[in-house]
Write a structure and sequence with these properties.
Elements: H1 14-29, H2 35-61, E1 66-71, H3 78-89, E2 96-102, E3 108-114, H4 122-131, E4 140-146, E5 161-163, E6 166-171, H5 177-186, H6 196-214, H7 219-232, E7 238-244, E8 247-256, E9 261-265, E10 281-285, E11 297-300, E12 306-310, E13 313-316, E14 325-326, H8 348-354, H9 356-363, H10 379-383, H11 385-388, E15 393-398, H12 401-415, E16 421-426, E17 444-450, H13 456-469, E18 473-477, H14 483-488, E19 491-493, H15 506-529, H16 536-559, H17 563-572, E20 578-583, H18 587-602, E21 605-610, H19 625-633, H20 640-652, E22 659-664, H21 670-682, E23 686-691, E24 705-706, H22 714-717, H23 719-732
Parallel strand pairs: 15-16, 15-17, 17-18, 18-19, 20-21, 20-22, 22-23, 23-24
Antiparallel strand pairs: 1-4, 1-10, 2-3, 2-4, 5-6, 6-7, 7-8, 8-12, 9-10, 9-11, 11-14, 12-13
Helix pairs in contact: 1-2, 2-9, 2-16, 5-6, 6-7, 9-15, 9-16, 12-15, 12-18, 15-16, 17-23, 18-23
Enzyme class: transferase
GO molecular function: carbohydrate derivative binding; glutamine-fructose-6-phosphate transaminase (isomerizing) activity
Keywords: Aminotransferase, Glutamine amidotransferase, Repeat, Transferase
Length: about 750
């Protein structure tokens, strides 16, 4: 089967040539490479070319926080690493940022800013820190991106927080902060911020001063002891780094429920001058990405552990060279880049939307994971085949976009009968009782889906599966070497490349692609273990899924051509205050993801629902044009003058009713979904159709958004116009799509 290709100008690049080369190599190496597969691989290669061309065409147009800390010596300037760390960690959630350094003459300099009432973007906040950090020169320092949980987004509440000679940066939440605050106020301490972190800073300062009076020990031992005493009083979670003016060459670190990773190297990386290149430097961060450019050697700080960080390395109670790890070849993120500019795109969000065809190719290993013979090759799963071949009941768990990907994966696994039972659950609520208790333990498995591999909900589920349930747990993650990947030690990397935007786009698609491969792997293993279960129906579904995967990069490249149509539609929806996104079958999780993007990017109230269940209650919320226009007139957007002028134009255009995006595909649900659309239309609602067959939109939408048909993955292609529509709606509303308000990637 050969798909009609887009007539487009092909711009040959190194990436294009690489895709062709890798695809061709796979074909040659397969001794059983038949004619059908040859056509499919040719299609896959052309798909990558078309996708890259689509990207080049666009080019021509033109509760979570992050920690980065470093201990160097001599003339090493910590600011370079700390400022780069702020840029890398801002996607975790950033409404405030700051850094502190201490020099060898015991001078402590703090520079920090909050977004405040002006709601500055993360880029603007970090730019302020960069601009005013010239005095903060020193070999030891800490930096922090804050996502407000206690207190306003003010300069005062930004981290680092100082108390006397102590400065701290903290990830997590202190549950008994209110009680401790009252106790410390009783001791005469005056609080200057609303944060729970200041409670920890003053508590450490309190014990440090107390120990200084009682002991003749060195300041190093006193700082660690004071930190330990303070943490014994604390109830909550923390990834904590502590600095003291009296100890200008060390930091104290502690972790409890919030990960910290220590990176070790004998050089300071690119910023170290030749005269200091031999001097050792030690890094601390909440995720490996912060120091990946400088070292690949690291050690995890264990839960409940307190340690001292020196330039020569960490001093930990249970220190052992066996704990030191290095990212191996399979864990290297070859797309990791330290640059912080999305050129030639105007922002990271659009860049990452347009990178999706290539991201899919990377998830497929550019053919390496789906061989010419049709065999699924997943190195991580193949290495643990003896353990996972017995699994018949699987729990998929994820949060937000990863949950939507898991639900799509659940449907794929059910369609090809990959396992006996599959359930996709929200990691926020996944509990002991969600695991089957009436089946042998060795037949159960858990798969945690997480883009970052650092979300506390995802880590909690993996710990629940491995520790409490005693069942094998794998991960599908985009972040190589993340806490989740290191905890599960088995799974599938998405290889989508780092996402800089606060919203997930290409990682969602890569997760679904990886889960599709995982579904095929389980089905393949199931048939190899018991050949008698092979059925003609399942075989047809399996082959259809494989073909869809091979065509997926091309399908996304074609879907990107809907951008201009989405841009025009977004302009018409500028003043809308609510919308619905409906789908059924494979389209339902995509509808939920689309609604999620409207909420995240455009700050628009949106609900993603099953097209069948919509008429049971939500249909009552659909308003005809007159009622809908009346409410639009009262909506203040960007000033009265603009509103008045815009509403005059809107009135002339005869605004439709409540907008409902309908994913109407040529599948077994088409009649049911179409009936729902007709009911919405009859009540005056505005139906916006996304379809792979324009005739289905007759009577519903005169100008439907058309995406290519692609078997069981057709619905996945609908996410592209949904992303583009949400993106363009954010732009016309004056919202920075890279940093929408109140948005954090890793709560």
């Amino acid at each position: 089967m050969v798909l009609p290709l887009l007539r487009t100008r092909t711009m040959w690049t190194r990436n294009t040539a690489s895709v062709w080369k890798r695809t061709a190599t796979t074909a040659v190496l397969s001794s059983n490479f038949d004619t059908t597969n040859s056509v499919l691989w040719g299609t896959a290669a052309i798909a990558a070319t078309v996708a890259i061309s689509a990207m080049n065409d666009e080019n021509s147009k033109t509760k979570c926080s992050g920690i980065a800390a470093v201990v160097g010596s001599g003339s090493y300037d910590a600011r370079h690493f700390l400022l780069e760390g702020l840029d890398i960690l801002k996607a975790r959630g950033c409404d405030s940022a700051g850094l502190v350094t201490v020099s060898e003459d015991h001078t402590m300099n703090i520079t920090k800013y909050g977004s405040g009432d002006a709601a500055l973007s993360p880029e603007q906040v970090i730019a302020l820190v960069r601009q005013h950090s010239h005095a903060a020169k020193g070999p030891v320092g800490m930096a922090h991106t804050r996502w407000a949980t206690h207190g306003a987004r003010s300069d005062q509440n930004a981290h680092p927080i100082r108390s006397g000679k102590i400065a701290v940066v903290h990830n997590g939440v202190l549950h008994n902060a209110r009680v401790l605050r009252k106790q410390l106020q009783g001791y005469g301490h005056v609080f200057e911020t609303e944060t729970d972190t200041e409670v920890m800073a003053k508590l450490i300062d309190y014990y440090y001063q107390k120990l200084q009076k009682q002991s003749e020990s060195s300041s190093t031992h006193l700082l660690k002891a004071a930190t330990e005493k303070a943490l014994r009083k604390c109830d909550g979670t923390w990834g904590l780094v502590v600095m003291c003016q009296d100890v200008p060459d060390e930091l104290v670190v502690a972790a409890h429920g919030s990960p910290l990773v220590i990176g070790m190297t004998s050089t300071g990386g690119a910023e170290v001058s030749s005269s200091t290149r031999s001097q050792p430097v030690t890094y601390v961060a909440s995720e490996i990405n912060a120091f990946r450019r400088f070292t690949q050697t690291f050690v995890d700080l264990k839960d409940g552990e307190v340690g001292v960080i020196q330039a020569s390395g960490p001093i930990l109670e249970s220190w052992s060279s066996l704990r030191v790890e290095a990212l191996n070849d399979s864990q290297q993120d070859d797309d990791f880049q330290a640059n912080t500019i999305p050129e030639p795109y105007p922002d990271w969000t659009l860049k990452e939307i347009y990178e999706q065809p290539e991201a899919i190719g990377r998830a497929l290993g550019f053919g390496g994971r789906l061989s010419g013979t049709g065999r699924i090759l997943l190195g991580g799963m193949d290495a643990h085949r003896d353990q996972w071949k017995h699994v018949k009941h699987l729990i998929l768990s994820g949060v937000s976009s990863s949950l939507h990907a898991a639900r799509y994966g659940e449907l794929l696994m059910k369609q090809i009968a990959a396992l006996n039972t599959v359930r996709a659950l929200d990691a926020v609520d996944t509990d002991y009782h969600d695991f089957p208790h009436d089946v042998p333990a060795h037949t159960m498995g858990c798969c945690v889906v997480s883009e970052s591999g650092e979300r506390k909900e995802a880590l909690r589920v993996s710990d629940l599966a491995l520790t409490r349930m005693g069942v094998p747990c794998m991960s599908v993650t985009n972040s190589v070497g993340s806490t989740l990947a290191r905890t599960t030690k088995v799974g599938v990397y998405c290889h989508a490349g780092r996402e800089r935007s606060a919203v997930s786009t290409k990682s969602f698609v890569s997760e679904v692609t990886s889960l599709a491969l995982l579904a095929l792997w389980f089905r393949q293993t199931k048939e190899e273990e018991n050949a008698s279960i092979k059925s003609r129906l399942a075989t047809l579904d399996v082959e259809a899924l494989k073909e869809s995967l091979l065509r997926l990069p091309m399908a996304f490249g074609m879907a990107l051509k809907t951008h201009e149509q989405c841009k025009e539609l977004a302009a018409a929806l500028e003043f809308t205050d609510t919308c619905f996104v409906l789908g059924k079958g494979f389209a339902e999780p995509v509808a939920r993801e689309g609604a999620f993007k409207f909420q995240e990017l455009a700050s628009l109230h949106a609900e993603g629902l099953s097209a069948s269940s919509f008429k049971h209650a939500s249909l009552a919320l659909v308003e005809p044009p007159i009622m809908y226009r009346q409410r639009l007139k009262t909506r203040m957007v960007q000033g009265k003058r603009k509103k008045t002028e815009r509403m005059k134009t809107t009135k002339k255009k005869n605004v439709a009713g409540t907008p409902v995006v309908l994913i109407l595909l040529d599948d077994q649900h088409r009649q049911s979904v179409r009936n729902t659309g007709m009911e919405i239309k009859s009540r005056g609602g505005q139906v916006i159709v996304i379809t792979d067959k324009p005739e289905l939109a007759a009577g519903l939408d005169d100008n439907p958004i058309v995406i290519p048909s692609n078997g069981p993955l057709t619905a996945l292609g609908a996410v592209v116009p949904l992303q583009l529509l949400a993106y363009e709606l954010a732009k016309v509303r004056g919202i920075n799509p890279d940093s929408p308000r109140h948005m954090s990637k890793e709560l």
